[in-house]
Design a protein that fits this description.
UDP-n-acetylglucosamine1-carboxyvinyl-transferase, Chain; four-stranded mixed β-sheet; 24 strands; binds uridine-diphosphate-N-acetylglucosamine
Length: about 425
């Protein structure tokens, strides 16, 4: 077990390079099930979730190997159509194998993900959507048991746009017979990359980047090569690191256009942002202004940046209100931030932050990926030493976060510990 030991204080200055997007790659990897052959995925980040998805594909019989940032997947042989509980409990995105397995092999046995660190996260849209495509689905012993002779095109409309369900149904529909319409689809860049990847494989998809996707099923797809898009959440987290410490940071390998909502809020907080092609430079103001945020589906402010924003607002002078409209109780970081001396109160999906810029180092505990990021950000400005325990959460989604922060001047170290 590792922990991070952080000595707060130094302003972060310099350059960091952003890695490939976890949430994009976790959809591209299972998409390889849809066509037999050899795929190459470049710009692959070294993350625990990528290892978990690799293991899951290997359990099913696919060949997976990582050399540097190049991931090779050989989907020529698949002999097990199952995502076991042991993998799904580590990573909910394992459910992404449901659509491709059903589409290509007509059967899938996928463990139900259950709850998560921040409350209920149902998968009813995935299940109802697969049923509309003609799959027979039963829930037995905690598993989704799905069968279909041949999926058939259908009209699917989500009550609310879901990233995972849009991706899963897209992967199912590309090999279905006839046309499928997905209304109120997610428009996240990671879903757009999946759709482009499937198109490159030979799928017929229209409306990419809009709320309405139409898919005309084809008989077969072919393997392709692609590079994972940059991680907009990692980039946002590092911009907040620059802003909270009062520094100037330049991030390379970004797609700034994917980050408009976050960049605009940082500007409202008083930061200066300069964009040059794929690099973003942030210069922090001497005093951060409090800025309210309501999370929303893309292109709104991402829920995956909510925890980091709360940490930033602890540094601002004044009161801000942060509302998470995507998840009901995603505030597990708040009691830990308060242990560092923050003044944050929550009710339902709203957090009120009374910022005063003063935090004091303490031992705190990671509860999930983005919560861990917010605790590290707070540790960067806390007086004295902050220890962040259970950093395996952060390794799920941030590649070498401590090395990138050290490069910017942070005093952060990974230390092995018996503490849990
Ligand atoms: C994905 C991201 C996660 C991000 C989230 C929201 C991946 C691997 N994970 O998660 O980092 O925080 O999008 O941007 O890409 N919902 C239902 N029924 C369903 C599915 C979803 O009610 O079957 C609800 C959820 O409870 C939530 C909302 O829809 O309120 C959006 O969730 P969704 O977009 O599906 O999140 P994930 O795909 O799980």
């Amino acid at each position: 077990m590792d922990k991070f030991v952080i000595h707060g204080g130094p302003k972060l200055n310099g350059q960091a390079t952003i890695s490939g997007a976890k949430n994009a790659l976790l959809a591209l990897m299972p998409a390889t099930i849809l066509a037999p052959g050899k795929f190459t995925l470049d710009n692959t980040p070294d993350l625990r979730d990528v290892k978990t998805m690799s293991q899951l594909l290997e359990i099913m019989g696919l060949g997976v190997s990582l050399t540097g940032k190049r991931l090779r997947i050989d989907s020529s042989t698949i002999n097990k159509f199952e995502a076991p509980y042991e993998q799904v409990k580590k990573m909910r995105a394992s459910i992404y194998v449901l659509g491709p397995l059903l589409a290509r092999y007509g059967e899938a046995r996928v463990s139900l993900p259950g709850g998560c660190a921040w409350g209920p996260r149902p998968v009813n849209f995935h299940i109802e959507g697969m049923k509309k495509l003609g799959a027979e689905i039963n829930i037995e012993h905690g598993y989704i048991i799905a069968k279909a002779n041949k999926l058939k095109g259908a009209r699917i409309s989500f009550d609310t746009p879901s990233v995972g369900a849009t991706g899963n149904l897209l992967m199912a529909a590309v090999l279905a017979k006839g046309e499928t319409f997905i209304e109120n689809a997610a428009m996240e860049p990671e879903i757009n990359q999946l759709a482009q990847f499937l198109k490159k494989m030979g799928a017929k998809i229209n409306g990419i980047g809009t709320k309405r996707l139409s898919i005309e099923g084809v008989d077969e797809l072919k393997p392709v090569n692609a590079a994972t898009i940059p991680d907009r959440i990692e980039a946002g987290t590092f911009l907040v690191a620059g802003a909270i410490t009062g520094g100037t940071v330049t991030l390379k390998n970004c797609i700034p256009d994917h980050m408009n909502a976050v960049l605009s809020k940082l500007e409202q907080a008083g930061c200066t942002i300069n964009i040059e092609h794929s690099s973003i430079t942030l210069k922090a103001p001497s005093t951060l202004e409090p800025v309210d945020v309501t999370t929303d589906v893309y292109p709104g402010f991402p829920t995956d940046m909510q925890a980091q924003w709360i940490a930033l607002m602890c540094k601002a002078k004044g009161t801000s209100v942060i509302t998470d409209s995507i998840f009901v109780d995603r505030f597990k970081h708040v009691p830990e931030l308060n242990r560092l001396g923050a003044h944050v109160e929550t009710e339902d999906n709203i957090a009120v932050v009374r910022g005063n810029g003063k935090l004091k180092g303490a031992k705190v505990m990671s509860t999930d990926l983005r919560a861990s990021a917010s605790l590290i950000l707070a540790g960067l400005i806390a007086d004295g030493t902050t220890e962040v325990l259970r950093v395996y959460h952060i390794d799920r989604g941030y590649e070498s976060i401590e090395k990138k922060l050290q490069q910017l001047g942070a005093q952060i170290e990974r230390v092995q510990t018996e503490e849990f």
